[in-house]
Amino acid sequence: MKNFMDENFLLQTETAQKLYHEHAAKMPIIDYHCHLIPQMVADDHKFKSLTEIWLGGDHYKWRAMRTNGVEERYCTGKDTSDWEKFEKWAETVPYTMRNPLYHWTHLELKTAFGIDKVLNPKTAREIYDECNAKLALPEYSARGMMRRYRVEVVCTTDDPVDSLEYHIKTRESGFEIKMLPTWRPDKAMAVEIPADFRAYIEKLSEVSGIAISTFDDMIAALRKRHDFFAQQGCKLSDHGIEEFYAEDYTDAEIKAIFNKVYGGKELTREEILKFKSAMLVEFGEMDYEKGWTQQFHYGAIRNNNTKMFKLLGPDTGFDSIGEFTTAKAMSKFLDRLNTKGKLTKTILYNLNPCANEVIATMLGNFQDGTIPGKIQFGSGWWFLDQKDGMEKQMNALSLLGLLSRFVGMLTDSRSFLSYPRHEYFRRTLCNLVGKDVENGEIPVSEIDRVNQMIEDISYYNAKKFFNF
Question: Are residues 79 and 200 in the same domain?
Answer without folding.
Answer: no
